[in-house]
Design a protein that fits this description.
alpha/beta, 13 strands, single chain, 14 helices, Rossmann fold, binds alpha-D-glucopyranuronic acid
Length: 444
């Protein structure tokens, strides 16, 4: 098997792969429906949209530990390799979470302004609350809008959605607390904010799931300098331009805020704290993957269009690269990650490592056929490369590329929707089926 895989690899000659991948054979080539396109310039950097020009891919091997030991069991993985790669990701991509880096430890309060109020035409019980993190340096508040199915007779599984827009514009409901929106670095009234990627909350409720909504910019506004106004402010001033190599950026901060919220929601009597899934799109898909990787109490993760710095392999020179992220959003990841821009292959980490951190928990990676910027095939390859780690747990990952709009069935799930960037209508039924298989099976 291994030799056969190697022969294919030599014949193709284009890529080289770690031995963890050779165990499965070479990944299938990019499907023909992903059409090559002319390149372009973005932020002064060339963008490649030709699969044949992606370059040589040499991925860090997930199944060999730093001392050369082959990782053969789930125990080896959990005891040896996972802690190693977690540290590699902290050191080389996300930075040290603000609360870990600081000597100030926050106290957390969770205040409800309402709990279990009938809403959405009698289909839901609505709760609104504020999670407040305080240190000697100050306080920071994050508002949570929660709906649980009105007909629930036991604590509900929950999907925590981290969104681009304030809660007030994300659900058609009156009485939602208005919090600030942001436009070009300036506060605007939340109700005037652009609605981006509105979820079908009713569909989740009808299927027995609670939905909690959080506006990411309330954890920390999304611009260079936003840290002074966000969660990081309670740990002391952050000089974003002068961050240390392994100092956290916005993505790790958003992830930390989501963990704080998860921890509080898990205490809500209407929620089953063991069945909280996290959902995010685009930069919030990148965030959801790291939040889920870092906080094993997230029971599942759904990451849509997460692209570069998310589920797409950075080593593939296709669509957005580390260089493009570092140029446009230098405050998202750590300075160390930005420094790999000239040579992504020199990074000791990549997207398959982040996905593997989630094993054996269910994760669903959705990306758009026409979203070349997010490198859809690069997301598939990363899922394929993480699959051997899922297999250590007797779990199933991806092998071949599924047809468009069809999700693979098991634990590490991949779906390519026949649409572009962001959620598509066909995602919701696929996500619900994924959640049903994974969160409804036990304890419901
Ligand atoms: C930009 C950015 C992407 C990001 C996306 C989004 O396109 O380059 O990395 O995923 O915004 O968050 O919508």
């Amino acid at each position: 098997m291994r030799l056969a895989g190697f022969a294919v690899l030599m014949a193709l000659g284009a890529c080289s792969w770690g031995s963890s991948d050779l165990d499965m054979g070479h990944p299938p080539l990019a499907p023909a429906y992903l059409k090559d396109m002319p390149g372009e310039m973005r932020n002064g950097l060339a963008v490649n949209y030709t699969q044949a020009d992606v370059g040589v891919i040499n991925v860090p091997n997930l199944l060999v530990s730093s001392n050369g030991k082959r990782i053969e069991t789930a125990d080896d993985w959990l005891g040896t390799r996972r802690p190693e790669i977690r540290q590699l990701l902290i050191d080389n991509q996300y930075g040290v979470s603000p609360s870990v880096a600081s000597t100030r430890k926050p106290t957390i309060k969770h205040d409800y302004s309402e709990h279990g109020v009938l809403a959405l035409n009698g289909t839901a019980m609505r709760s609104q609350s504020t999670v407040i993190a305080s240190t000697a340096g100050g306080s920071h508040a994050i508002d949570v809008l929660l709906y649980t199915p009105a007909r629930a007779t036991s604590p509900s599984p929950l999907v925590l959605m981290v969104n681009f827009s304030p809660n007030i514009v994300m659900v058609d409901d009156t009485g939602i607390k208005e919090t600030d929106g942001w436009e070009n670095g300036k506060r605007i009234p939340g109700r005037q904010a652009r609605v981006i990627a509105k979820p079908d909350v009713a569909a989740y409720l009808a299927r027995g799931y609670g939905v909690a909504l959080v506006h990411y910019a309330q954890i920390e506004p999304d611009f260079d300098g936003g840290s002074a106004l966000g969660l990081r402010k309670i740990y002391g001033a952050v000089n974003e331009a002068g961050r240390k190599a392994d100092e956290a950026g916005a993505i790790a901060t958003w992830a930390e805020g989501l963990s704080l919220v998860r921890e509080q929601l898990a205490l809500d009597p209407s929620i089953d704290g063991r069945r909280i899934a996290l959902y995010g799109v685009s930069r919030l898909g990148k965030t959801a993957l790291w939040a889920g990787a870092n906080d094993p109490r997230f029971a599942a993760v759904v990451a849509i269009s997460s692209g570069e710095g998310g589920a797409a392999l950075s080593r593939r020179n296709y669509g957005e690269t580390i260089g493009h992220v570092a140029a446009a959003f230098p405050y998202w990841f750590s300075p160390k990650w930005n420094s790999f821009a000239p040579s992504p292959s020199s990074s000791p980490v990549d997207a398959h490592i982040v996905l593997a951190m989630l094993a054996p928990r269910p994760v669903m990676v959705i990306v758009g056929e026409t979203d070349a910027w997010s490198d859809p095939y690069g997301e598939f390859v990363a899922a394929r490369l993480a699959t051997p780690v899922y297999r250590l747990f007797g779990k199933v990952g991806v092998d071949g590329i599924p047809p468009l709009d069809v999700a693979t069935r098991h634990d590490l799930v991949f779906m390519m929707h026949s649409a572009g960037h962001g959620p598509a209508p066909q995602d919701t039924p696929a996500i619900l089926a994924f959640l049903d298989r994974n969160l409804q099976a036990e304890g419901s």
